[in-house]
Design goal:
Length: 494
């Protein structure tokens, strides 16, 4: 195919203007450089209409995610992606779109040509406005949409978030930067608990608002052990993670047992194992209350964590760190460097795909498992520290952790599964679950920006890979040891 003169000379076209650098609202422009002829012509028209434009003028592509691009997307009032076969094949465009989705940005899709997008990405973009240049007055309609968003942004500016600190992933659960936020969430949690039970404020549960150094969490019996003590036979020291749950499982009666279900197979995401209904007794965080939680509905849970191949097939991009795959084909390795929002977007896309194809069970959806569902499925009826017993020396048979991983991830499914057929629960990557930090087990409507992850990871010691181990991070954070597993469960909205 012979290219037009304009396409042939695209690389030689100078930038039409400098990227916006003020403090006001602006539109972020995502595009393939092979399309710059048409894109530059379009954004020049946008700017003449009073729209502030940010694009990658002067910023060279890099092998890793470019900080300037991430910050520009985060601060933008709207996100514009120019779609063509070239941009659909561009790793950088796909990453920019995924990041915009994770930041809940308003997206305007402008189709330069008829283009087939990855199915998950296509469905995610369908919820936003799209315009084709084949439409009459398309440029005018695009300008009008962006001006409305820009004006709305000026009238209702978002609250400025504190700049995120770069913290080593091994220190994040204990870092000073998080204790301040945790203390506020804890205090709010206690106020709600006391109000619900008509209790007077109990100072033993409170942490000072001003934190100048790491503060030990409140000493609640059987819940917290902050000091990384020397190895001991005392079973009261369940874990050194300050927010781990001490759990016992009640045995199910024969009358309560549900009929076993066949494994569920999704053409995109693979096999899901059936998890029968039952009960689990959990100590509520920040209290001495034990709560019997009924898992009333059985559900299916992914046999494996989501792999890099599956994530890329659905979402069109692979955000994982390539250096963690030991130089091998990365397809069967867990996807990593995933935020909670990324995981939720994947689940929504998978649900929409299955619904469109007529393969979604009635009144079900693909979603992240709740914290209770994850631990219930992990334990598979066990009462011990691990589903295989209490001896951490046996962990190497069941998961990849600090003691055997060589500081690398490994392909899924190489270790033993638990009794319900689930692999890699204790290693490779920690797994996001659906719970907010503040509302775990209390069914509170209030949400904060922190989410829970469960399971072990390739860089974690054995003591932090127990069935009860629990970690907390911002829903925006991405780490090389964070991935997720998908559940197929009854939808709470249906």
């Amino acid at each position: 195919m012979k290219l037009s003169h304009s396409m042939q000379s695209a690389a030689d076209i100078p930038s039409p203007f400098e990227s916006y650098s003020g403090d006001g609202p602006y539109s972020f422009i995502s595009y393939a450089h092979a399309d710059k002829v048409k894109v530059y012509q379009t954004i020049r028209g946008f700017r003449e209409k009073g729209i502030n434009i940010w694009y990658d003028e002067g910023i060279p592509p890099a092998g890793e995610w470019v900080d300037e691009l991430a910050q520009a997307i985060k601060k933008s009032s709207s996100f514009v992606v120019f779609v063509s076969p070239r941009s659909a094949d561009s790793r950088y465009v796909r990453m920019e779109v995924q990041y915009a989705l994770s930041e809940n940005k308003e997206i305007l899709t402008i189709f330069l040509e008829d283009t087939q997008l990855p199915p998950g990405l296509s469905l995610c973009l369908q919820q936003f406005q799209s315009i084709s240049i084949k439409e009459t007055n398309w440029a005018e309609n695009a300008c009008k949409a962006l001006l409305i968003r820009q004006d709305s942004y000026e009238l209702n500016p978002p609250k400025q978030k504190q700049q995120e600190n770069s913290i080593d992933e091994e220190e994040i659960d204990y870092a000073i930067q998080l204790w301040s936020s945790w203390s506020k969430a804890l205090e709010a949690q206690n106020r709600r608990f006391e109000k619900r039970h008509n209790l007077k404020p109990n100072p033993k549960y409170l942490i000072p608002e001003t934190v100048s150094e790491p503060v030990a969490p409140p000493q609640i019996p059987e819940l917290i052990d902050t000091a990384p003590a020397a190895p001991t036979e005392d079973k009261s020291n369940k874990t050194r993670h300050p927010f781990a749950l001490d759990v016992t499982i009640t045995k199910q009666s024969k009358e309560e047992k549900a009929e076993p279900q066949k494994p569920h197979l999704n053409d995109y995401a693979g096999a899901f194992k059936w998890i029968p209904p039952g009960e689990i007794t959990i100590l509520v965080p920040y209290s001495d209350e034990r709560r019997l939680v009924h898992v009333r509905d059985g559900f299916w849970l992914g046999e494996y964590v989501v792999t890099q191949a599956i994530y890329a097939k659905i979402m069109g991009a692979n955000p994982s760190f390539s250096e963690l795959t030991l130089g091998e084909d990365s397809d069967n390795y867990p996807v990593n460097n995933i935020s909670w929002l990324d995981a939720v977007s994947f689940c929504r896309a998978l649900t929409m795909l299955a619904n469109n194809e007529g393969t979604l069970p009635a009144k079900h959806e693909y979603r992240l498992p709740t914290e209770v569902e994850w631990e219930y499925a992990c334990r598979a009826g066990s009462l011990t520290d691990y589903y295989f017993g209490d001896d951490p020396s046996e962990l190497h048979k069941h998961g990849w952790f600090r003691g055997n991983s060589r500081k690398q991830m490994h392909p899924v499914g190489l270790k033993f599964a638990n009794d319900w057929g689930l692999f890699d629960l204790y290693g490779n990557v920690r797994e996001w679950v659906g719970n907010s930090f503040v509302n775990t087990l209390l069914n509170d409507s209030e949400q904060d920006e922190f989410r829970i992850s469960r399971g072990g990871a390739y860089m974690k010691p054995a003591v932090e890979c127990k069935s009860s181990s629990r970690s907390t991070n911002s829903l925006h954070h991405r780490f090389r040891n964070l991935g997720f597993r998908v559940a197929l469960a009854p939808s709470p909205t249906l």
